[in-house]
Amino acid sequence: MSIATIPSLPTAASRLVHPLPRLSLQPRATEATSAVRRISSQSLLEGERELVIQHQGSEYHLRLTRNDKLILTK
Q1: Consecutive H or E run containing 72
Q2: Quick one: which of 38, 40, 74 has its CA closest to 54?
Q3: What residues have CB less than 8 Å from 57, skipping those under 6 apart?
Q4: Which pLDDT does position 25 carry in this prediction?
Q5: How many CB atoms are closer than 10 A to CB 7?
C-alpha cells in the first residue's frame, strides 16, 4: 500500500499579487465637487417653510418638515 502525498495549500500571502489599497474616509478633491455651488437652506427658504422651484415648466415644492428635514415634491 502506498501513501499518497497531499499537495500543500497556498498561503494567503502567496495568493496576493498586489497589496490591497488603503481606504480613506476623506473625500477625493475633484474639479466637479469643488465647482459645485453651495447655499444654506436657511438663506434659500428665508424664514419660510416652503419654496416653489420652477424647472422646465413644472413646479417643485421644497418643504421644511416639523423635524427639520427637507422634502422636495413635484
Answers
A1: strand 70-73
A2: 74
A3: none
A4: 74
A5: 5
23-66 tens-digit pLDDT: 777 766 665 556 889 999 999 999 999 999 999 999 999 999 99
CA distance 69 to 74: 17
* Whole-angstrom distance, CA of residue 42 vs CA of residue 40: 5
DSSP state of 47: T
Cell 428665508, residue located: 46
d(CA 74, CA 63): 11
**What is the model's pTM?**
0.52
Domains of the chain: 38-74 (2.10.70.10)
Contact 42, 48 (CB under 8 A): no
CA 7 to chain centre: 46
